[in-house]
Q: What sequence folds into this?
């Protein structure tokens, strides 16, 4: 119950982590099934339709429901602490964002048991995704599930923007903000501009499918290429929504374990902003083979290549942070140092893909599958592993086991390279992506086998990580405030896990790496910026949960509003939009309640603070 | 020890890259790395340039990483605080400018090739015009200048430029012959795509659909058959010849009533399904049952036709052809005889 009504950013972080972990597991199992099917030519482990559902759900789940929530988990856990705040700007909205994400994700995954999962790829290109060619409700689950989940992401993004802008501790200017706070800030800005685009696309596609509109119907004057533009205007920035937080994590982990401040901090900030900006200008590099013509192709090719420049700046800055440092190889730092070369490999294939005439050969092949997994798994997932091991003691008060952590790292990274390195060659040798099987004698067999074995090894790595979590959670909480001993930022100046008000007294920030600065000046902790006083806290409330349930019900109602239930009461409920109305009533009713009932929250008084 | 191994392991992939690229891996009729025509060659040229630049970049990053990770690891008892360096303007400018130069080195030939490959050959009098139409899950090739249509096998004269016009009849597909040229999507009419390639050497090249188009997307293959100019002319004439129907009049009638509702042979029937003229001399049945009398890479054409007609959904899940026995009411014997007839329907 406590978990359903909480508005505390630290608890919401944990909710995001469990929910993201759950979906990540589902997506991982889907990946293993895909790889099992491709282990040999003409395999019939799953049929063609199921395979297409698997790849669609794997991609969609991983991107929207697996890694994004884990990113949000870390942001929620860390950002208020890093900037010296007591919570995010809008705690109620924070809870609402989580619950809409969760219910959107549940809706999407219910498709497996409700008559067919989406099957048009995570990109859902029209006309394949229109009702003429995708007859089950699968794509409806996709459009409506993602609209609901996307609402949560957008709410979260706006919340972090507001938090970073307004709630930094005294003295923390933008140029004294930790890198992870910076990347969160920029990521949130990308979310603010990119998510509305996909939402519009999903709404239009829903209209096409459920209300018979013709936005993407070629026969009726609609354009399938329009969908591709809308999708990628969102889809390309989405890639940066994923990778920038990983950049942020690496920029925190490396300085801590090298005992050195981040090399070239201001160029890192500048590079992040530049990457985000360019990220919006290059969407059509996903469409080189669509036939946009040489002028468009040339422009988008060159602008894409430019992204290599700020990315290169980042990589060399990390390397030179390590240079001359005193480097300790804890699990987080293993992942961070594994990240640099691995991500670089994904980056260089990105530049290769940007060369449009070469992309005519790479596009839609396993070369691309290899490329984006190098970026997403080799970059982002490694970054998340680094971040999770790094901040685990702060989130849960317990250190993860180092030995198991090292095993996780080695099995995961070796499995990863085995799985995806060979896929570059599969693509170049003529294997298209999204194929449910392939004919023998094409020289594809051995490499596919290797790839599947690697995937198994990554699975083992993930299981070791889970074991580590279970083993750790059985130990008593014992983590020190600054368990890595070389913490540089504010979160390490308070207990692990932090009390619900985070900072008894808001700290005064006197420079970049605020805590490190105090430590070097010989101080025990941060200097407070205010006397001990009464702390205002927001009240717990079930309303965000109830509002999300309402949207969830409305989604179902709308989705089945055209179905033939063979008459009777169920038809009456669905076909007259009664279920939809009911769901919306719950949501808007809760909103009304929230507006009418004044809740001023509560206070923690100084006596209580001192009493602990 | 562990660290040394770490850096060695990071170099392995690189060695593998060079090794395999030099060995030129994959089938000659399929691999991007073994180009058989000018557009595929220019794509590969760019790839080689890009990969050389990128390998240099990787080598630099990997060696710095290896050096740093080995050289600066904290030794037991080492407790001093390293100097907190702010950054270095010179170094940072250096690694902004160098990537910029590398990008320019790659961007210039990229742009040049984009425009070269984007040239429109549809007005070229010497080019053979072919209209490609994608269908779930087969390919239709129409030669407007000769008034003929065929399916699955694209027959072209070696050395001549082929000017393509591509569309789709249903969902998006993408037309790809890796060893001859990069891919291009087939969009619905109104967004017709054009491109061209040529195959200097006679031979058969494997083509694929590269855009997810439904369950049998992976099976939407086709062949490009480059033949001599004379052979091409003969093929055109044979293709135009009046239809050959089964000798047995009863079977001929069944074939006409049931099969020619969708398919065409010679001057008869409808071509909403794949044109069957001369199917006995094609490279494959349904694009994926490879015809090979030696049985190394497939089966004899007659056997393939039987396999297809007895179980169309099993061969290509989700395809749109009605089932001969269930939907058209043909007996097994009729199916086998139709298969025999089709197998013997050769063009030479
Ligand atoms: C155990 C790890 C993973 C394995 C073995 C794996 C494997 C695969 C395979 C075999 C495909 C299908 C390729 C195709 O034919 O199109 C695929 C697609 C995809 N994967 Fe993964 N994957 C893994 C993890 C991830 C993660 C963590 C993400 C993202 C966060 C991800 C994102 C995607 C996406 C977006 C697609 C494209 C789906 C589509 O074509 O619609 N994968 N993956
Ligand atoms: Cu296809």
A:
């Amino acid at each position: 119950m406590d978990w359903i009504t909480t508005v505390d950013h630290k608890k919401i972080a944990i909710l995001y982590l469990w929910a993201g972990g759950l979906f990540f597991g589902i997506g991982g199992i889907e990946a293993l099934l895909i790889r099992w099917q491709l282990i040999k030519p003409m395999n019939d482990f799953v049929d063609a339709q199921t395979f297409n559902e698997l790849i669609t759900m794997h991609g969609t789940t991983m991107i929207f429901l697996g890694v994004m929530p884990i990113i949000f988990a870390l942001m929620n856990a860390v950002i208020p602490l890093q900037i010296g705040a007591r919570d995010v700007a809008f705690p109620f909205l924070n809870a609402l964002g989580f619950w809409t994400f969760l219910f959107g994700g549940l809706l999407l995954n219910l498709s497996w048991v409700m008559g067919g999962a989406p099957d048009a790829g995570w990109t859902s290109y029209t006309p394949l995704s229109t009702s003429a060619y995708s007859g089950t409700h699968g794509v409806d689950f996709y459009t409506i599930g993602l609209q609901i989940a996307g609402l949560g992401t957008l709410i979260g993004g706006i919340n972090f923007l507001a938090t970073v802008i307004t709630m930094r501790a005294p003295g923390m200017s933008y140029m004294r903000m930790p890198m992870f706070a910076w990347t969160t800030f920029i990521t949130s800005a990308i979310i603010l501009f990119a998510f509305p685009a996909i939402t519009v696309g999903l709404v239009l596609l829903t209209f096409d499918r459920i209300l018979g509109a013709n936005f993407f119907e070629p026969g009726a004057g609609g354009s399938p290429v329009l969908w591709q533009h809308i999708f990628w205007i969102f889809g390309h920035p989405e890639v940066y929504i994923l990778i920038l937080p990983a950049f942020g994590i690496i920029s925190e982990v490396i300085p801590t374990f090298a005992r050195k401040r981040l090399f070239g901090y201001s160029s890192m900030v500048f590079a992040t902003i530049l990457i985000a900006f360019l990220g919006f200008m290059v969407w059509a590099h996903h469409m080189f083979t669509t036939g946009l013509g040489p002028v468009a192709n040339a422009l988008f090719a060159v602008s894409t290549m430019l992204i290599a420049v700020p990315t290169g700046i980042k990589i060399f800055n990390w390397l030179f942070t390590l240079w001359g440092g005193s480097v300790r190889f804890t699990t987080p730092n293993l992942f961070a140092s594994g990240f640099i070369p691995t991500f670089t490999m994904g980056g260089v294939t990105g530049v290769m893909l940007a060369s449009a005439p070469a992309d005519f050969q790479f596009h839609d092949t396993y070369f691309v599958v290899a490329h984006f997994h190098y970026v997403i798994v080799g970059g982002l997932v490694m970054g998340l592993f680094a971040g999770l091991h790094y901040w685990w003691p702060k989130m849960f008060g317990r250190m993860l086991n180092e030995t198991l952590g090292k095993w996780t790292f080695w099995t995961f990274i070796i499995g990863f390279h085995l799985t995806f390195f060979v896929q570059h060659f599969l693509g170049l040798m003529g294997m298209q992506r999204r194929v449910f099987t392939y004919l023998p004698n094409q020289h594809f067999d051995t490499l596919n086998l290797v790839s599947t074995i690697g995937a198994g090894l990554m699975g083992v790595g993930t299981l070791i990580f889970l074991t580590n979590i279970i083993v750790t959670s059985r130990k008593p909480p014992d983590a020190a405030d600054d368990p890595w001993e070389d913490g540089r930022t504010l979160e390490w100046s308070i207990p692990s896990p932090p009390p619900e008000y985070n900072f008894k007294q808001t700290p005064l920030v006197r420079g970049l790496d605020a805590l490190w600065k105090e430590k070097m000046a010989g101080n025990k902790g941060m200097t407070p910026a205010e006397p001990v006083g009464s702390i205002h806290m927001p009240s717990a409330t079930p309303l965000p949960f109830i509002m999300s349930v309402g949207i969830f019900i409305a989604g179902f109602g709308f989705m089945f509003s055209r179905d033939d239930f063979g008459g009777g009461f169920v038809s009456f409920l669905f076909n007259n939009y009664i279920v939809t109305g009911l769901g919306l009533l719950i949501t808007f009713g809760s909103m009304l309640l929230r507006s009418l009932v004044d809740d001023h929250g509560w206070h923690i008084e100084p006596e209580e603070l001192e009493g602990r | 020890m562990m660290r040394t191994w770490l850096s060695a392991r990071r170099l392995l992939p690189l060695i593998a890259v060079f090794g395999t690229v030099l060995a030129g891996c994959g089938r000659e009729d399929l691999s991007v790395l073994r180009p058989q025509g000018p557009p595929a060659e220019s794509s590969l040229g760019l790839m080689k340039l890009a990969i050389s630049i990128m390998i240099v970049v990787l080598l630099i990053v990997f060696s710095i990483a290896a050096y740093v990770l080995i050289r600066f690891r904290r030794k037991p008892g080492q407790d001093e605080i390293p100097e907190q360096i702010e950054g270095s303007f010179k170094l940072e400018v250096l690694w902004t400018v160098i990537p910029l130069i590398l990008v320019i080195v790659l961007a210039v030939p990229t742009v040049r090739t984009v425009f070269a490959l984007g040239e429109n050959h549809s007005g070229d009098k010497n080019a053979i015009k072919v209209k490609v139409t994608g269908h779930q899950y087969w390919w239709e090739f129409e030669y407007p200048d000769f008034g003929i249509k065929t399916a699955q096998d694209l027959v072209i004269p070696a050395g001549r430029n082929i000017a393509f016009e591509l569309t789709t009849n249903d969902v998006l597909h993408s037309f790809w012959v890796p060893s001859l040229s990069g891919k291009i999507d087939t969009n619905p009419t109104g967004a017709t795509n054009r491109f061209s390639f040529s195959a200097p050497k006679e031979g058969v090249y494997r083509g694929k659909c590269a855009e997810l188009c439904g369950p049998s997307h992976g099976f939407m293959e086709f062949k490009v058959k480059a033949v001599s100019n004379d052979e091409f002319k003969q093929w055109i004439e044979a293709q135009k010849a009046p239809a050959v129907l089964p000798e047995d009049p009863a079977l001929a009638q069944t074939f006409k009533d049931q099969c020619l509702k969708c398919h065409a042979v010679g001057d008869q029937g409808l071509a909403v399904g794949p044109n069957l003229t001369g199917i006995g001399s094609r490279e494959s049945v349904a694009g994926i049952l490879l015809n090979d009398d030696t049985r190394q890479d497939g089966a004899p054409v007659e056997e393939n036709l039987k396999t297809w007609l007895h179980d169309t959904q099993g061969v290509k899940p989700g395809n749109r052809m009605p089932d001969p026995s269930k939907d058209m009411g043909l007996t097994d014997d009729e199916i086998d005889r139709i298969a025999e007839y089709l197998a013997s329907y050769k063009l030479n």
